[in-house]
Specification:
The chain is of the alpha+beta class and 57 residues long. The protein has one helix and two strands.
């Protein structure tokens, strides 16, 4: 038995990403993003980001 985590989990020499809380600009749900929001650009949760990307905006 090894450390097979199925594609990640902090192994491999890279520290886990620091997550920051944010509010989605579209659905207003609280979400976490892997960067510190600067306040000058809207933040989207994973679902809204995917919807926007797929719609071509």
């Amino acid at each position: 038995m090894g450390f097979d985590q199925g594609g990640g989990g902090g192994f491999g020499g890279r520290p886990p990403r620091e997550m920051h809380k944010a509010i989605c600009a579209e659905c207003k749900k609280e979400c976490e993003v892997p960067f510190k929001p600067s306040g000058d650009r809207p933040i989207y949760c994973k679902e809204c980001f995917t919807k926007r990307k797929n719609s071509g905006n």
